[in-house]
Write the structure tokens for this entry.
Amino acid sequence: MSLIFSILMILLRAIEMILIFNSHTIRVTFLEVIGYSLFEDFNWILYFLGLLFILHVVNSLVSATLAKRFTQVWLVIALLAQSALVFYFLKTLVPLGKDLFAYNIDDIIITVRSSGQLNFMTIGGGIVFSALIFFIFNIVNKHLIFKTKTSMVFTITMYWFLIFIYFIPFSDSNKLNEVKANIQLNKSKYLSEQSFDYFMYSGEYYFDFYLRSLNEALFVKKEFIDPTYPFLHTADYPDVLSPYFDSLSSPPDIVFVLIESLGKAYSGKDAYLGSFTPFLDSLESHSLVWTNAISSTGRTFGILPGLFAGLPYGQRGFLELYEDYPHHESLLSILKENDYETSFFLGTDASFDHQEEFLENAGLSELIDIQGFDPKYEKMASNTGFSWGYGDKELFKNGLSFFPKSDGKPQLGIFQTITSHDPYLVPEREFYSVKFEDHLENYLNLSEAKKTEYRDYQNIYMTILYADDAVKDFITSYSKKPEFANTIFVFTGDHRLPEIPMASRLDRFHVPLIIYSPLINRPTYFKGMTSHFEVTPSLLAFLQAQIGIQLPEQEVWMGQVLDTSRVFQSKIAMPLMRNKNQLLEYLNGEYFLSDDQLFVITDGLNIDPVEDQNLKNKLTGEFEDFKNKNNYTIQTHKLLPVD
């Protein structure tokens, strides 16, 4: 059975390789990945069989039949798990790890249903696959019989190989290409290691962190004031935005547009895949634009606590602390205290990822989600019977029927889109199919050979073109309102989508950040590195300087202020959460630590490996200090003292 299992696992690897290279445009060759891939597979096969053999022997002392059936069941489960993990990777190009444990069962079912993977074909296929493997094992047990000595030779050889492969250091010669490294992983081995780490080491902390600034080169010097509240500080956040605006005579309306999966790779100036957002591109010439901006997380769960409150991550993202949030302030709560009305609009269910609880905790005045749409609007198409909700154009049209209110109060409005999300089913498909081809030909000016690479991801790119058109319609309609002249718009993405292969480990976080307003008098491109963490402190400092809003004396913002340098530099320090439960990256200044590898960051957020053990130790120490404070805050709920 072990021999058949090993053969089937290698066959699954072959199928995985064929599907990946046929479904994605990968800038590596088969020969570059197959060697280390087989090493990873044999590593897992021998380790798994070694453990299973011990259980098999124990069970055989009770009953040989019991031992055989028990082993068969676990071999089938292992093959099914490997198959499911391979197909998950084929869809996302990201291996499933400890983020599996960060979602409740309802969210998992919704996500799987929306992707079209939970259907009669997949369920039936799994049943047939299991029955076929059981049949193969039984046939082999009857006809492929080894003598005791032969079996002993196989077993001893297996354990010797296990010792050699699992304990002798061996590494890929090039782990710097994340897509390549992810392809080579054995997906079951990766999930097992991540699961062990999650259940064994999560939630630990030591009360020995330092209350000091990380780096004197950072913009804002934070004075940490209480060791029992490790993120609490006083600081002077300078106003960096006023030089680019006309003087305000009254509180401005502020509108955030959070565009699902909008990465810098395919939007805006110098997008290395070419821009698929022509309207946002045209808006840049009238805006303040940060070309080296990053999100705080690699998935949507981090945008609200990161962008609007600069909060630590918790174990699975701050939103997962919804049952009892540590006391905190946010842009929404502070503006509400300054007589702003706050509204949030999205086309899907606000309870997903517990966004609704976070917004309610912030004192949101009005929430319009999937339940609040006029019946005249139609939901997005579905290939499974399940739809995420309403498309971006419907979102903006519906939202503008509620916002802005004409009651004399200043407004904060937040619009969050959904269309550019898996399964990437664009409305008006025929129209956007034509528009996609026209965009490749006339906007990007691609050769016919190059167009083929983009057609592999046509469904994704069409949803980006659609989202851009939706923003265009929104701004066109809004510009006709009298409030437009006194409104500040902020456009950004929540993360870069993973389905199109990424250029680097920092690429998944690289997003557009645009501030657009008729009040801007000096449109400018900035190259200073910044993040979502910097937006709220900068806007609040701007509003305090311009109209005198009242701000709290003590903050827990993790960010600095927006960097308005026109040459590349980095004066921020922050951890990055790749997926829920995966706090793997940290940056300080122009250096980036990822999976225990050190990189230097350059303009365009390109990263290059660097060897400097002292610097690596410094960043590792800072990262561990943050994780220690983070875990302490989860367990004690001591984030911001209650007045």
Summary: The mean pLDDT is 89.
